[in-house]
């Protein structure tokens, strides 16, 4: 056992910047793991409450305000209510998969948070250790791997429920996550090119003094879109659209199993927000204006405050988007992922790679600027062509609608239900066709009295 631990420590030490990991006492590791778990659970409780309170204010109504001061304990009350509900398992489900699916959805999100750096090295009870549970030479790939595994819980939950609505929700979730996960992974490629490492701590240190969110703004912007799609949040919650497929993949779940799916969604929100802070917003590094007049802003426990402030801003963005944008159609969701985000990312990564090579080779700034201008020109031309194509499509649809309207005005029966003429024979009966009434008398305007004989 000791030999394996020593070998793992040697591997970590071989990667630059990882010599501080793998040497902590077991109780320090246990404390950091417990703090990370408690932080995630508290964030879930507070985010559920903030989700409802902030959206209530945006919609000019009160959010939860009964349970606890200012409604702060409403999330706790919801958790207790769900845990006390009767736990039913529908007849005919795949019992083992049905029970395991919520856990498969929730566990990967907890694992991904283990490689997030919250601060630099500090002293905890006399032991100098980084404020990060662990780091790996391929920590960034671990984040993508856990995101890919998490969707299995959703797909298996929909499949094991033996319900058409749940199965449809699971299939939608799998297609959505695959398309948006590709764009998310491509947004990380530009970060890897500029940082030169896959370790999360190394990526944070590479953003001193300029954050990647500024110099790699297209990647940051696309990541913000993909993180909303990855967590199945509005306007991309097509996997559980209540107006279309009841409750999506969670239709047949209740009590604690439903709570696990609910927990997985919010823990994923916390994780992707922490990843955005780590990869694009400088991690625990203080904003540049602060470091200009405070040299010790990135030392001690102060970086935890900077990280938490950035994290809360990204979490508020989730609520803002949910309360502002309507739900998109599923074809629009897929079109955005495959026809917009992925092509733009491919062109952008090519431009970033060329610019980085020119910088490493000592090329003049003019050459690097020319590549940037070329990228902007290519994207602008593509957007212009897309806008022209959309305009032509709308014009064709308008002309078709106008032609339909003209035909309906000329012929009132155009496009209507095919009603047979009154002179046609009644099929399926022995009633003959009605003879045409050629000599019908003209109406006299007098009411005829009908009497029974």
From TrEMBL:
GO molecular function: NADH dehydrogenase (quinone) (non-electrogenic) activity
Transmembrane segments: 26-50, 96-116, 136-161, 182-204, 210-228, 266-285, 305-325, 337-358, 364-385
A UniProt-annotated Pfam family: NADHdh
Region Disordered, annotated ranges: 409-453
Catalytic function, reaction form: a quinone + NADH + 5 H(+)(in) = a quinol + NAD(+) + 4 H(+)(out)
Cross-referenced InterPro entries: NADH_UbQ_OxRdtase_su1/FPO, NADH_UbQ_OxRdtase_su1_CS
Keyword Nucleotide-binding applies: no
Enzyme class, spelled out: translocase
Membrane-protein topology: Multi-pass membrane protein
This enzyme's EC code(s): 7.1.1.-
Keywords, sorted A to Z: Cell membrane, Membrane, NAD, Oxidoreductase, Quinone, Translocase, Transmembrane, Transmembrane helix, Ubiquinone
Its job: NDH-1 shuttles electrons from NADH, via FMN and iron-sulfur (Fe-S) centers, to quinones in the respiratory chain. The immediate electron acceptor for the enzyme in this species is believed to be ubiquinone. Couples the redox reaction to proton translocation (for every two electrons transferred, four hydrogen ions are translocated across the cytoplasmic membrane), and thus conserves the redox energy in a proton gradient. This subunit may bind ubiquinone.
Subunit structure: NDH-1 is composed of 14 different subunits. Subunits NuoA, H, J, K, L, M, N constitute the membrane sector of the complex.
Protein family: Belongs to the complex I subunit 1 family.
Name recorded for this polypeptide: NADH-quinone oxidoreductase subunit H
Lineage per the UniProt record: Bacteria, Bacillati, Actinomycetota, Actinomycetes, Streptosporangiales
């Amino acid at each position: 056992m000791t030999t394996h631990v020593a070998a793992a420590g040697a591997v970590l030490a071989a990667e630059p910047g990882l010599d501080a990991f793998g040497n902590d006492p077991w109780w320090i590791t246990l404390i950091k793991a417990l703090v990370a778990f408690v932080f995630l659970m508290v964030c879930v409780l507070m985010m559920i409450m903030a989700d409802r309170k902030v959206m209530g204010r945006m919609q000019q109504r009160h959010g939860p305000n009964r349970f606890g001061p200012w409604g702060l304990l409403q999330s706790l009350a919801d958790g207790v209510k769900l845990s006390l509900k009767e736990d039913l398992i529908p007849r005919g489900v795949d019992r083992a998969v049905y029970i395991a699916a919520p856990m498969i959805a929730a566990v990967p999100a907890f694992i991904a948070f283990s490689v997030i750096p919250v601060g630099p090295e500090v002293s905890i009870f006399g032991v100098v250790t980084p404020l990060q549970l662990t780091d790996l030479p391929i920590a960034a790939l671990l984040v993508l791997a856990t995101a890919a595994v998490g969707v299995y819980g959703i797909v298996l939950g929909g499949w094991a429920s033996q319900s058409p609505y749940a199965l449809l929700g699971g299939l939608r979730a799998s297609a959505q996550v695959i398309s948006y996960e590709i764009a998310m992974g491509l947004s990380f490629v530009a970060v890897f090119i500029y940082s030169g490492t896959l370790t999360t701590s190394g990526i944070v240190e590479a953003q001193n003094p300029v954050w990647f969110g500024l110099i790699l703004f297209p990647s940051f912007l696309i990541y913000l879109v993909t993180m909303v799609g990855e967590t199945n949040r509005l306007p991309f919650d097509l996997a559980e659209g209540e107006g279309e497929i009841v409750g999506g993949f969670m239709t047949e779940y209740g009590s604690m199993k439903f709570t696990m799916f609910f927990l997985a969604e919010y823990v994923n929100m916390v994780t992707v927000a922490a990843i955005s802070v780590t990869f694009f917003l400088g991690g625990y590094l203080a904003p540049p204006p602060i470091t200009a007049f405070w040299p010790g802003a990135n030392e001690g426990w102060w970086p935890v405050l900077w990280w938490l402030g950035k994290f809360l801003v990204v979490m508020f963005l989730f609520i803002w988007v949910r309360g502002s944008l309507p739900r998109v159609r599923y074809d629009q969701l897929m079109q955005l992922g495959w026809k917009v985000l992925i092509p733009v990312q491919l062109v952008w990564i090519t431009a970033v790679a060329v610019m980085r090579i020119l910088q490493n080779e000592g090329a003049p700034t003019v050459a690097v600027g020319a590549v940037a201008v070329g990228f902007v020109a290519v994207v602008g031309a593509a957007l212009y062509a897309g806008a022209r194509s959309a305009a032509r499509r709308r014009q064709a649809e308008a002309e078709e609608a106008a032609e339909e309207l003209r035909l309906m005005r000329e012929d009132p029966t155009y496009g209507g239900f095919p009603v047979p003429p009154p002179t046609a024979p009644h099929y399926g009966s022995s009633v003959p066709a009605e003879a045409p009434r050629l000599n019908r008398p003209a109406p006299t305007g007098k009411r005829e009295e009908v009497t029974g004989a």
